[in-house]
Design brief:
Helix content is 46%, strand content 15%. The protein is α/β, with parallel strands linked by helices. It folds into 2 domains: 6-204, Alpha-Beta Complex (2-enoyl-CoA Hydratase, Chain A, domain 1), CATH 3.90.226; 208-255. The protein is globular, with a radius of gyration of 19 Å.
Length: 264
């Protein structure tokens, strides 16, 4: 496909979705919302892609909804309202049920709706000069879905502080690491995409089927109590039994070679 607001690439077994509106600090307009659904679906359905990395081109990662578009034409705000009311968050990997590993590589500013992509990623890397802020309440909007998602990654008080202070405070990458929002801070910042590719290549060496089952089980646990989550996880475990990768993994280990995983 041809994308106007994104750059979609394949680097070996790693697919990349890069926000590509650097002149607007990668703010998300209606076109980007539509293209994100297509991009996640395209890479999610490509058997050659084992891991997806989400990043930003230019100086910033993602600065949320394009407020100028919302304020100027009336259509943008109406489409945004309608999509939320219909519970259609098809621009996010979480809503679309992407069960491949997803890495977010955050550079520069991640603000507002950009926090969706941090909350939804399995692993988050941040450049050492990255920062995070949630200006929703500062522009008269409630801060809800993104911040609820972040509560699975970090303490509730830190999330509430970000949501209630709004645009008047930014969280540094170092502080985000301390709080568990990100798992690695990359320095110098220019190495961010290289570091994300390196991590993705390590992950891509594992069984695609096993990783999908693992992701479904662990994310599914957030929807259940402990016992129900463990039962659902057990179903994923049993469901993988008999898959060719279960025999290939031990065989490759014993023969001291790279495994030849089945491509579903």
């Amino acid at each position: 496909m041809t994308y106007q607001t994104l750059r979609v690439e394949r680097r070996g077994g790693v697919g990349w979705i890069l926000f590509n509106r650097p002149d607007r600090r990668n703010a998300m307009n209606n076109a980007m919302r539509d293209e994100l659904r297509d991009a996640w679906t395209e890479l999610g359905e490509d058997p050659a892609v084992r891991v997806i990395v989400n990043g930003g081109l230019g100086r910033d990662f993602q600065t949320g909804a394009d407020v100028k578009e919302l304020a100027s034409d009336g259509i943008g705000m109406e489409r945004y309202r309608e999509s939320v009311q219909k519970w259609d968050l098809g621009f996010t990997s979480w809503f679309l049920g992407i069960d491949k590993p997803v890495i977010a590589a955050v550079n520069g500013i991640c603000a507002g709706g950009g926090l969706h992509f941090v909350a939804d990623a399995d692993i988050v890397l941040a450049a050492s000069d990255a920062s995070f802020t949630d200006p929703h309440v500062s522009v008269g909007q409630a801060s809800t879905i993104e911040m609820i998602g972040l509560m699975r990654k970090m303490p509730a008080e830190a999330v509430l502080r970000m949501a209630l202070v709004g645009r008047y405070e930014r969280m540094s990458a170092a502080r985000a690491y301390e709080l568990g929002m990100v798992s690695e801070v990359v320095d110098p910042p220019e190495r961010l995409h290289d570091a994300a590719q390196e991590l993705a290549e390590k992950i891509a060496r594992n069984s695609p089927a096993a990783m999908r089952a693992t992701k479904r089980a662990l994310w599914g646990a957030l929807e259940h109590g402990l016992t129900d989550a463990c039962k659902a996880g057990a179903a994923e475990l049993v469901g993988l039994w008999g898959h060719p990768d279960q025999a290939e993994g031990p065989a490759a280990f014993a023969e001291k070679r790279e495994p030849r995983w089945k491509v579903d």
